């Protein structure tokens, strides 16, 4: 399992961005395992949560092991605290970066499939919301979306004030991310708006996997999003279990999400400590 750390100059962010890539191109087959057919890899673009960066998934979960087992390439960029939305006035177009530019650049660099049905986007918390948003916005690119504990905050944003010391709950902080909070519900920054638009266009929806812990404060908004997707004709799955907004839950459910995704699931290869018998 190759683990690649690199820096990309993004035109949409006007700066160099660190990115991690897991690529099973060097996977050594265990005895009795059939050799993998020589073909491009299915790919998961995986987004971190707030306060995080491109290292989060590697340090917080067993993502490398899961990717190797499923012969899946995984691309993990840094998205700052942006919620993966575009800020064109500041040339901080995080949505265009993860939904378009990063896909195009990594496909040039690595043997990745260019097929929609082989291209997935996922994330946790802020990244879970960003994955659903940009998976819908770029539905011609992504065939599947994984959202774990998605921070779906749009509907509560207009009610915010600055009467709190918690910066993440302040109105001025939210305005720095989403702009006019009274207009965001009817904008491309709202997944529900995008669902209605895709439906009007009679375009094909990506399939969606949502999971959230029973003790997570975001459970209700995740259930609401799931029901909205189902009511509007999206092929969506919802799973839940014991857990809060924490890495133990995300490690368990990114593994379950990979089992849901149409991956190859060919098993682990030889690697450090795993040499078979």
TrEMBL record:
Q: What is the lineage of its organism?
A: Bacteria, Bacillati, Bacillota, Clostridia, Lachnospirales
PANTHER family in alphabetical order: DIACYLGLYCEROL ACYLTRANSFERASE_MYCOLYLTRANSFERASE AG85A (PTHR48098:SF1), ENTEROCHELIN ESTERASE-RELATED (PTHR48098)
Question: One Pfam family from the UniProt entry?
Answer: Esterase
Check the record and name the InterPro entries matching this protein. Answer: AB_hydrolase_fold, Esterase-like, Mycobacterial_A85_antigen
Write down the superkingdom of origin. Bacteria
Keywords recorded for this protein, A-Z: Hydrolase
* Record protein name field: Alpha/beta hydrolase-fold protein
> Which molecular function terms from Gene Ontology are attached?
hydrolase activity
- Keyword Hydrolase present in the record's keywords: the answer is yes
């Amino acid at each position: 399992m190759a683990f690649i750390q690199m820096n990309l100059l993004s035109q949409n962010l006007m700066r160099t961005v660190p990115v991690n890539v897991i690529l099973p191109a060097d996977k050594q087959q265990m005895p009795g395992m059939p050799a993998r057919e020589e073909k491009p890899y299915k790919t998961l673009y995986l987004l971190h949560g707030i306060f995080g960066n491109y290292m989060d998934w590697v340090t917080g979960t067993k993502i490398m092991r899961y990717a190797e087992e499923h012969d899946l390439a995984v691309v993990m960029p840094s998205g700052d605290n942006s919620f993966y939305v575009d800020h064109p006035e500041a040339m901080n177009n995080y949505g265009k970066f993860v939904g378009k530019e990063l896909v195009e650049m990594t496909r040039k660099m690595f043997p990745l499939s260019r097929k929609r049905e082989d291209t997935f986007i996922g994330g946790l918390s802020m990244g879970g919301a960003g994955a659903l948003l940009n998976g819908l916005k770029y539905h011609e690119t992504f065939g599947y979306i994984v959202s774990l504990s998605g921070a779906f905050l749009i509907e509560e944003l207009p009610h915010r004030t600055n009467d709190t010391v918690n910066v993440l709950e302040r109105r001025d902080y939210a305005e720095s991310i989403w702009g006019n909070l009274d207009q965001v519900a009817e904008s491309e920054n709202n997944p529900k708006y995008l669902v209605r638009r895709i439906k009007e266009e009679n375009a094909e929806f990506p399939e969606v996997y949502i999971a959230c812990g029973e003790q997570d404060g975001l459970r209700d908004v995740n259930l609401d999003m799931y029901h909205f997707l189902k009511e509007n004709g999206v092929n969506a799955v919802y799973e839940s279990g014991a857990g809060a907004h924490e890495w133990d839950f995300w490690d368990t459910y990114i593994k379950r999400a990979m089992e849901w995704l149409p991956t190859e699931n060919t098993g682990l290869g030889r690697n450090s400590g795993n040499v078979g018998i």
